[in-house]
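Q: I'm writing up a methods section and want to include an example of the input and output format. Could you take the sequence below and give the corresponding predicted structure tokens, formatted cleanly so I can copy it straight into the document?
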Amino acid sequence: MRRATAQFVGRVSELGQVSVLIEQAAAGRGAMVWVDGEPGIGKTTLLDQTGQLAESRGLQVFRGAARELEQHIPFAAVRSCLSTDRGTQHPLTERVRTLLRGEGVRDDGAISHEFVVVEAILALVEGLCADGPVAVILDDLQWADPSSLLVVRSIAEIVSELPLLMMLAARPLPRGTSMSRLLSDLDDRGAERMHLRPFAGNEVDALVRNQLGAKPGPELTAVMTGAGGNPLYVTELVAGLVRAARITIVDGIATSVDGGASDESRKTRLPASLSEAIVQRLDFLSEAARRVLAVAAALGPQVEAVELAEVLGGPVIDIWNAISEAMDAGILIRSNGELAFRHDLIWQVFADQVPESTRRSLQLRTAQVLISMDAPVERVANCLTAGSGPLDNRSLEWLIGAAGLLIIRAPELAVSLLERAATTSNVDSADRDIVRMRHIQALLWSGRAEEAETAARNALAALPSADRQSADGLRWLLAQACFGRGNLREAVAVTEATLAQPGLSQQEQGRHHGFRALTSFFLEDFAAAEEAATRAVSVGDACDDKVASGFGYLTLGALRYTEGYLDRALELANRVVVAYETGIRGQDHSDQFDPYVLLVHCLIELDRSIEADEALNVAIPHGGVYLASNLLARARLNYLEGRWEDGLAEIHACLEAPDIFGYANVAHSQAALIAVHRGTFVSDPDTIPDVDDRLGSRGYLQFRPLVQALAHESQGRPDQALEILWGMCGRVAAGLTASTLYIVYPDVARLAATCGANDIAAAVTAAAELLVTRQATPSRRGTALLCRGLSDRRPELLAEAAECFRIAGRPLYEGQAQENLAVVLATSERTAEARSALDSAIDLYGDLDAEWDIARAEARLRQHGIRRGRRGPRGRPKTGWTALTPTEQKVAHSVAQGLSNSDIADRMFLSRRTVQSHVSSILAKLGLSSRVQVAIEVAGKA
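A: Here is the clean output for your methods example:
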């Protein structure tokens, strides 16, 4: 019987929608499409057609699919899109592939590594889109690993701004939490939804005609109704009937040979389900082909002839003959350069032919083959996890050697295998110690600190007392686990117990002292931190160990910073950077070590904004688990300098960064603070996320109470605002927040004056003046002068305060000084001077869009009969080119030059996420929807 040339059948409406979206992407505006439907309904075929259409329109197409057996391998689904040579010319492609291989990875843990990989993939997508329109097509998303789903969600945030079509397909079930969240996000972002319905009768007829090269007659059409319009079911039914010689073609009409049989007899001869239709294909394959396909299916949906030959112990030519037979029968196809079962359902039917016990044996045998072939570690691990008993010697030897890489590339598989290996009876003591330590490291990497602590304690309890070296290593991991859980006191106790053990090397002593010092500092046990840090520096310098001395310098600098001695803190901060760059970079202990955080904060507090920004230019690309800290530091710098739009962009980037130390809650408070000043904060201040016990929150305890206090003040409750703010000052004045607490003093002074709380006014003035005696920066002098001038009603001090804040580059505080100056002058009936000071304050507030501050200043002066002397537009327009901040204008010009977000980030020393936030703001302010439109807008300004 003649086989017709395969043609695409049906889905006219869907293809029409896709064609429009392809044209849209080619024109510069992207879209996301979600395709769902039952198994066999034609999702993959529609994706194939989309890829062909996209390529014909000039889009660069990346095609991949998730696999059921790879759900525990991070980024497996995304990696499938990079398995071909597409995109290899782009310079960022190799970086992504290097990270996916687990090479060049920082010792920061899975959360940080995942963020780095996602950022690299997004940078690659943006870079490819900068070169031309792109289509990313990903099938079988129901099997996707969580990291790949995170990539999809992240692309969804920017897809509309790029010349990008992203098309996804999945079955309705299974649908876990990550998948449900993704679907919700896609709906919120306006993704197109396509639910593939069953074929109508005329479409089924067209599919049969395409398969047979003849029009189906009435009898055959009646038979096809049993497929319920499922294209795969129809195809399998027709294939089965053809092989059984139960179809004849006469005069171009295909007829079922037993078309006249009764309905009941037809039911007994035709498959009752799609799975049964697939099973019937087995009858037409040779015994050798069935055996090879069953073994292949037991190992996964992809087929590799050489591996199969090794597993089965037969010649490769015999395996290839079986594969060729399966390809001729339409069971196997080539997909993305690999041999695979044509459909998951076909694979599953063949896999089900193999008993579970046999399948496990085959997987374990395959693991040995893969080990001998030096296959990727995650493939070997996937096969080994099929078993449940002890690992054999060869597998154990492989695991010990591959554990480091496996922890990075497939941490959940690493945890599972190392846990099994730790209980294997045939492991000698030395290997068992290695396995136990690797198991704990895998748990720490995966962010499972509590389990790591339990494993470390159990390993220590089982360790012979004479094995000092293993005990020291386990205690270090135990301390890290306690630190990771936030149980800092226990981390210190473990470190002290280790230091009490005899036989520690100088290097080990120095590092433990350094770790103890930094942990004690975070506990606000400053005396213990000082003592431990001094010893760490002494030992580190004596044995030239940069880790020990670096931890020591960092802690000593943090202590001086907290006390307010900024010059001394800055000197130590520079030593930290030198220690990192000459000895710590790349070492195992660098994950608790941010070499730039102290330097950045010292420069901010010294009012050396340009140098602080330059230090952040280095710190932010450094990345790691402290990325959120550095993004938040830049947000704070932007807030102080009055660049609030830029600050909000950094806050948004901070909220997207890994947050194991608790900076997100602080970022929410910082954003709320800007909203309060702008008069746009409408929430209950008590709903702002509270800080917690994590390290990131402890140095920023003033922000949430400040937001709450200002919100109460804006609602006419200054007494309640003062109670909140001054109460907070009393609680945190001796802790980590001490050195930056002064930023709330101007608000305390104003509230104290409003409420007549002279005792609080005197106390806050004394606190501000004490800080100046330790380091007289312009902003600190301005704060002390403001408090003293308002308390003593001395306008000359308030004028001097305004000048100090001007020199420091802090416009909000300069405005507050001018506002208070206006009030004091007004009480002395110096009306003209008061009006001039009010105008100056409002001008400063207007540049910040600080509408609430303007309203407050006007209300305070109205009580003295004084209104603004000059009126004009307040602040920057909300829409149009003039609404863009200077940073946004620079970003817009870079977009017009065809640069990707990553290119712009490198050029402007920002994070890619910050640039992304700026681009979104630019589009919103200009009323545009794509980067192409931005380029046109910029060209029009030239």
